[in-house]
């Protein structure tokens, strides 16, 4: 029903496919089309899978390319096979360069570098199936190396560390046009809790909330929308 509602609101044809968890890619596609950008360049941090629950695969299918960040070796290898135009960074990103323990969870989309998040997920019934040491890159060194040409879409889903990464990201030098980030977490009761501090921080840094799906929030640089309205 949620997908049907999104399709109706965006005036999409029947059978239009979403690969994201709650239709985020359809909203993003509509947003970029509204500003005249058919093939946005993306950075997908915590990309997880080439097309399952992917915010960027719809754009890849349409001819876009970008950088995907995935520390799980098996999933990084899958990206190289299934999305050969993308640059695959087989690491995490964080406040500084390091080697950290990566907790592989029984649900791979929940794997994380955060020990506290892994413990919280265990309390919700998920199991830690493996602990592996993986490289972590300084967030702004990573951005400097990969994004001299600019970023259209920054998608972040890193299970417990989203706010830390976005707070450290230099939003002046490496400013994305659009950000998609997981904006809720689930407590032991199973009730979703909105990450208000995360959204407030991004709004304080000059982004405006464009849409929420109940799982992710989509924010944009208001100057981008102003340019669209002036055209």
**Residue share in β-strands:** 25-35%
Query: Helix- and strand-based class?
Result: alpha/beta
Give the low-confidence spans: 1-7
3D shape: globular
Task: Specify Rg, calculated over alpha carbons.
Answer: 17 Å
Q: How would you write the strand order of the largest sheet? A: 3-2-1-7-8-12-11
- pLDDT average, as an integer? 87
Q: Outline of this structure?
A:
The chain is built from nine helices and twelve strands.
Question: What can you tell me about this protein's structure?
Answer:
Helix content is 33%, strand content 27%. The chain contains 9 helices and 12 strands. Helix 3 links the parallel strand 1 and strand 2. Helix 7 runs parallel beside helix 8. It starts with a helix and ends with a helix.
Helices and strands in order, then pairings?
Layout: H1 2-10, H2 24-34, E1 42-45, H3 57-61, E2 66-69, H4 73-82, E3 87-89, E4 92-94, E5 98-105, H5 115-123, E6 128-138, H6 139-146, E7 151-156, H7 162-168, E8 176-182, E9 184-186, E10 192-194, H8 196-204, E11 208-212, E12 216-220, H9 222-230
Parallel strand pairs: 1-2, 1-7, 2-3, 4-6, 7-8
Antiparallel strand pairs: 5-6, 8-12, 9-10, 11-12
Task: Give structural attributes.
231 residues; 3-stranded mixed sheet; alpha/beta; disordered N terminus; 7-stranded mixed sheet
